[in-house]
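Q: Hi! First time doing this. I have a protein sequence and I read that you can turn it into a structure. Is that right? Here it is:
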Amino acid sequence: MKYAGMPWAMWMLFGNSFEKQLHEVLNIEPSKAKEITSGAKREYRSIISKLPDFEKGDRFQMNIVSCAMLCAFLLHLDPEPSLSQVTEYYEKSMMTKPMHLFCRFSGKKKFTDQDYESMKKTAAFKAAKRNPYSWNMEFYPYENNRGYEARFTKCGICHLMKELGLFQYVPAMCQLDYTMSRAGGVSEFVREYTLASGGPYCDCGYLKK
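A: Yes, that's right. Below is the predicted 3D structure, encoded as structure tokens:
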């Protein structure tokens, strides 16, 4: 995958936030945070360069790019933070004002005919059959038009973080699903299983409010 394009844009949007939260969440001095960020940026570009290009129509490229960014910072933290620290760090780094606006905008489209058709196409696409850094998803609308479940049997985040020796931090990224659903304002997020915890799949349920 080339750094130019989405990976570059993601760093421009979130790089400063990831640096800021090193200090605010992990209590790292600003000068040290800047040093970590410099190393993380080089690490990020290296991780991105080793990822395959995503197919046109694969909606999960942003997910793997944000994972690469988190991993790049984690690989430069010593001592290793706890899972709860990383969960808070990742959430606050990602949930910037533009991200809140993005979630509210996405919320306006949730449960529309266009949204349902998009989910069906994603389920049929099965990108992880060809790219282990992407996802395979099944789509299950709830009865009585109450919402739907996206059920993932393959997860690019699990694959990449396992490769990088950071698999224990996958739940920190999973937790953002709840936060983004709340920010969207139209759904309640529900989940029973995750692949990271040894479940048979990751279920992402969206119930209409």
